[in-house]
Design goal:
single chain, about 120 residues, alpha+beta, 4 helices
Length: about 120
């Protein structure tokens, strides 16, 4: 059985608790991937999960890992054909696998915004 830890911030303050949740979450995703071999399981994380320990662990598991990144950071990737490459150049050179338009509805005060499509 798999569970969601929705109260992770209530247990203990500090960075140790924040990083632990990403490691445990990816372990749960890996357990699910092993149990469902015909299904692709991916852990999706925000920028807090930008941890070398997590990235290294993800290379040895059945579950994939997707970590949101910020353009301002100097990220490099290791490619199979050459030296380190800028992450943003590498991603821009990859074929698009899918595209979806998301409609963000307008809303009123206190945070008013116009409708937009992304």
């Amino acid at each position: 059985m798999f569970s969601l830890d929705a109260d992770f911030r209530r247990d203990a303050p500090g960075a140790e608790k924040e990083s632990r949740r990403w490691m445990e979450g990816h372990q749960c995703a890996d357990d699910l991937a092993v149990a469902c071999l015909d299904t692709r399981v991916i852990t999706v994380c925000d920028r807090e999960a930008d941890l070398w320990e997590l990235v290294r662990k993800a290379t040895t598991t059945h579950a994939g890992l997707l970590v949101r990144a910020c353009r301002g950071r100097r990220r490099r990737v290791v490619t199979t054909v050459g030296p380190l490459e800028c992450l943003w150049d590498h991603v821009a050179g990859q074929p698009s696998l899918a595209r979806k338009t998301i409609i963000i509805e307008a809303c009123g005060r206190p945070r008013s915004r116009k409708e937009r499509r992304s």
